[in-house]
Specification:
InterPro entries: Atg1-like, Kinase-like_dom_sf, MIT_dom, MIT_dom_sf, Prot_kinase_dom, Protein_kinase_ATP_BS, Ser/Thr_kinase_AS
Family: Belongs to the protein kinase superfamily.
Number of helices: 14
Largest sheet: 6 strands, mixed
Structural class: alpha+beta
Number of domains: 4
Bound molecules: adenosine-5'-triphosphate
Protein name: Serine/threonine-protein kinase ULK3
Order of helices and strands: EEEEHEEHHEEEEHHHHHHHHHHH
CATH class of the largest domain: Mainly Alpha
Low-confidence stretches: 166-177, 355-360
Enzyme class: transferase
Strand content: 5-15%
Catalytic activity: L-threonyl-[protein] + ATP = O-phospho-L-threonyl-[protein] + ADP + H(+); L-seryl-[protein] + ATP = O-phospho-L-seryl-[protein] + ADP + H(+)
Length: about 425
Amino acid sequence: MAASSAGSDGPPSVPQFNITGRLGAGTYATVYQAIRQGGSREVVAIKCVSKKSLTNTSKENLLKEIELLKTLNHPHIVRLIDFVWDANHIHLILEYCSGRDLLRFIKLRRCLSESLVRRFLQQLALALRYLHSRNVVHMDLKPQNILLTGGDSPKLKIADFGFAHHLKSDSHADQVRGSLLYMAPEIVVDRRYSPKCDLWSVGIILYECLFGRAPFASETHEDLLRKIASPDPVSVPAVQCLAGREVPLTAASRPPSSRDHAAFFGHSFIDLDHAPSAECLEKGKSLALRAVKADSGGELEEAFRLYRLALTYLVPALHYEDSAQKKEQLRDRIYEYMSRAEYLQSEVTQGRPKRPPVAESRWNRLLELCKPDQDIMASLKEISAFNHKLSLGAHEEALALFETCCDKLLELIRSYNCAVM
Ligand SMILES: Nc1ncnc2c1ncn2[C@@H]1O[C@H](COP(=O)(O)OP(=O)(O)OP(=O)(O)O)[C@@H](O)[C@H]1O
């Protein structure tokens, strides 16, 4: 940390950074984009808080945000890189998230596909599990405080820990914090806080992702308060085939005692074990290594089982990789293991040796291998449609199609694993 200098108005002057634009302003801060001077050219967000605008309470909140962010290190939480100050301002130098916030993301799309919601929910759940294990409660989770990285496969990052603080597991704060639309009823009614508050907010955010509006969205403040305080359970539209429908009910259950972290983290829709993450990639790689070893040792049945299992981790791990080159390498590996598993399947299940067909290209070879399975063929055809849309420049549609196909293929791989195990 270091001292900086700034004028009273306009962009600040922060040592080692060039301000390149204004990202926006919140209740007590203005946020700028900046580039680190020198070789790295790292892009950051600088949150500038005027000391004058701080009451004692907000000063305390900001100090908590700084102290807390400094200790947190998680791929789905905005990283605090450093902080500097001058006579008039405190500047938080934060990891830059180029995809803006989740509220804007939802509004632009009206609502999100179930496969995307599942991926976002997995990321939120990973961050929440991390916070929960460190006894940290955010207390102001809302789509505006969830930022996104850029690119075709954006990742969520929880931001704005201005209201968060460490809670002893059974203690309750006595001050109303957070935003009403996403606030747990026990806070509004009894001003009671606990780690269960964040779970409620996640349930409401999930609802908004799936249906395009928060369940208690109201015309007037009174109406909103009435809905929050009502004893009725949150009603989730009974949309057919919506597997994620149950999760808002688990998370946003009215009595805090029935809101259970273990049930939430263990929910089959969230499927945290297969959430795109460093661990998921590592698990997939280590299973694939074991599969190759079993394969070369002639243990075909075991190799088949391990390839299948490895794929259930490697396919979602594709979403975790940021580097295009590593993604491509991983995709090649996945095709390779899929082909080998298909070949072994015929060996294991039919007991007759069969050489994999030779096709002109990798794609043709894959189609050839998948021919006997109508479901896989249907998904692969959709992937061809994805390529077509991509060539027409319909990127959003192409991405949605690709995600759906990956999810379907993953389901199929899982069902094969169940059938084999
Ligand atoms: N790390 C970041 N990367 C990119 N944009 C950011 C970052 N942090 C904040 N922003 C953007 O800057 C703007 C202001 O953020 P800030 O956190 O000060 O306020 P807020 O969360 O919108 O409002 P409030 O603090 O009143 O709840 C928002 O549009 C936000 O998306």
